[in-house]
Amino acid sequence: MYLMFLIIQNEDSDILTRRLNNAGVRVTRLNTIGGFLSRGNVTCLVGVQEDEVERVLEVVRKTCHTRKRYINPLPSGAEPAHLAMAAPAYPLEVIVGGATIFMIPVSSFERLGRNVAFSGTHLIPQHGASQTGGNSMHMVISIVAADDAEPVTRALIAAGYRVTRMNTAGGFFRRGNVTLLVGVEQPQVDDVLQIIQANVRQRTEANPVESGMPMYGATVFVLEAARFERI
Length: 231
Fold this sequence. Notes:
- The chain is α+β, with helices and mostly antiparallel strands.
- The protein has helices spanning 10-22, 53-63, 80-85, 146-158, 189-198, and strands at 2-9, 28-34, 39-48, 66-71, 92-97, 99-105, 108-112, 121-122, 137-145, 164-170, 175-185, 218-224.
- It is built from 5 helices and 12 strands.
């Protein structure tokens, strides 16, 4: 399994989300900023099996297009005297858009909720040790409903874990959810999963793909970190 990070332009985000949803693919959206122009863009998180990767890429290729933009070559705030002495400046043409895609192998994928047992779907070998000789570090990425985020965050902090919280949205309807990032050593992964499971509600209502809500109480990706530093 892979977690795909799709960095795309705002203009393409709605139609891409709709097309992926129509293909049965769930999408979590994060509003971001990037590029030389510091324009708003969208980062989509998509979890897919290996045999689904090309299908997702084909949807992205058909949807996300490059565009021409023009920028002022003179720095903002330039003094009028300097502008008077400067040679005539023409707008610069730059190409924006398209898509930048990162694919990261998933160590473990879980759908959690009360009365739901861990699937234990370990999809790549655990290396077991970091470069510094200790246990390998993992990033736990948990997508939960917005109303479950506070109890999950409080429980993780009470257990001594550091949590980074991002307000995100899912599906074409952009319904709010929360993505939690927790960095832990490999032996602590199961403890983090148990805390998340104990503090999210089991979802019994139908959750269509386009609704943007997690199918279960929490959708969790566990990624193995190649390197971890505290500076």
